[in-house]
Amino acid sequence: MPKVLGNIVLVGETGSGKSSIINMIAGAEFAPISNGAAGCTFDYHSYILPVHGRNFKFFDTAGLNEGEMGTVERSVAIAKVYKLITSLDGGINLLMFCMRGPRIKNATHQNWKIFHEILCKKQVPTVLIVTGLEHEENLDEWWWNNKGTFEDQGIRPDATACITATRGKLIRDG
Question: What PROSITE patterns would the database entry show (predicted)?
């Protein structure tokens, strides 16, 4: 088994791109993804992935806020992540909080508070990953134009990444 340097946990709403981020880091389709109306991750799954030649264990968790008819009820999903966090050998080294842009929903603010402030007690470095910005010309500019809105809502990450976690469609000529 390869030496693992740390644990990285991805959390966020259903459809925010957590599994797609795992696949992007892996450079392959490891985590199942879905374009369906319901989420496809029911519990957490772990993946040992190399980053700059060093291995980290990434945890892809069940999506939040699917609604009453969703795959995993919100309270159950939060309980599963809590159980994961408290059982990790070595604790969490990084929390990746994923959200689908461009708007901050009330659920985004609530989830940030639950994970960053309550479960991780503001002790775990947290990266905000904003997906769904495919129509933006400049992703860095989008962040700097919107950073104040996030801060006004108490969302103050240690770092941010505004990305598109999809490869898009192949367009063939003729």
Answer: SIGMA54_INTERACT_1
